[in-house]
Amino acid sequence: MKKIVVTAILLATTSFYAQVGIGTTNPEGALDVVSTNSGIVVPRVANTASITTPINGMIIYDLSSNCFKGYQNGAWSDCGLVPVNPILVQVGNEGDAPNTVPSVVTATQLASVPGVTGVVPANEAAYQAYIDANPALFSAPATVAEINAMITAVNVQAILVQVGNEGDAPNTVPSVVTAAQLASLPGVTYVVPANEAAYQAYIDANPALFSAPATVAEIDAMITVVNATATPITSTTGKKWMDRNLGAKQVATSATDHLAYGDLYQWGRKADGHEKINWTSSTTGTPVNGTTTINADTPANNLFITENITPHDWRVNQNANLWNGVAAVNNPCPEGFRVPTIAELNAEFSAYGIIDSATAFSSPFKFTVPGLRNYFNGSLSVGSYGYLWSSSVSGSNSSYRYFFSGGANLDINRRAYGFSVRCIKN
Length: 426
Description:
With 426 residues, this protein is an alpha+beta fold. It has four domains: 2-75, no CATH class; 85-154; 167-229, no CATH class; 232-425, no CATH class. Helix content is 26%, strand content 17%. The protein has helices at residues 2-17, 86-94, 107-112, 124-133, 144-166, 179-183, 196-205, 216-230, 342-351, 357-362, and strands spanning 20-22, 31-33, 44-45, 58-62, 67-72, 75-76, 233-234, 240-241, 265-266, 277-279, 285-287, 291-292, 304-305, 337-338, 372-373, 380-381, 386-394, 397-404, 407-413, 418-419, 424-425. The strands form nine sheets. The protein has a four-stranded mixed beta sheet, with no helix packed on it. Strands 17-18-19 form a three-stranded antiparallel beta sheet. A two-stranded parallel ribbon has the order 1-2. β4 and β5 form a beta hairpin. α7 (196-205) crosses α8 (216-230). The longest helix is centred in the middle third of the chain and has 23 residues, at 144-166. The chain is elongated, with a radius of gyration of 33 Å.
């Protein structure tokens, strides 16, 4: 009986005054709800797609986003009832499957969306093509995160294509890629703006080192080489040297600077990936590639070759000339550089009084202590010793210099070891 009376009163109020009051006898709007300890619960739906016929003014609680959304101006709002940017609506509509709405969004429109960054006007057509080709990557409406992901993907690909085109043979497309472009590539590190012209020259001079499009690995390798050779050390002996170990990312800031450790090469072997180490601290690193016990004069892969049988060489047939000079068949050094002889290393150690790891680092060479990779199982011994291969041989072994906290000397050892290399200018 009470429910009937209340309903009648509400209907009467609605009929005569077009206002409903709940918790109040003086409603100040079409619906006025007053409470000191409760609230209104709006419809809770799985997501906006659950509403098949939305109309302007509709409010819901979106369970997939855990927020309020409203339908206004023909589109669902973002969380918090914020109006959706019409450009996001446009991109969402253009990212349809099948592609019945070709994308025509402009670079100017994309750049105007708050939160969207990195828009390159020259890539406008590529952005449109990406939207048409990847409908599954866009919501309706699209989100700022989706737009930014697209811009990054397109911009990266455009730069890789550019470098691949510039690395042509014969050189009909001179390289003009900028240091800023290279630095924007995810995965490319240690770009030095002052070396921009050197990067361009390297691309033009080494077309065989770049795919079409180029890869991030190829560009990162170029950066490492150019940075290492751009500012060589001139010794008091008159020789010029790379200012870091082969493969190092930077000039060492300490003897245990892992970013300056570089690669660990098996003697006489070329740069094929066996030498790569992912250094994570001054005492830890992980070989990028694994090991194999299969010896080969011309390895068919990038695996580190272990050998427990004398003469402990990674090859089947020993060859004493693999690193002998700048034109050596397996010279791992950049163009114009080579692996030094033991006499050349000895001369520098003598000239700068290198008697331990401390003096090795305090010298202009800034030598580090990356240790070695063992010939018998490929494991690393890191952080106490520095080992430097020479191009010189002694019988079935090869000559090298080493240093640690308690001393420094020259010696000979098994060629299957992985040691550092410091290149000398020819």
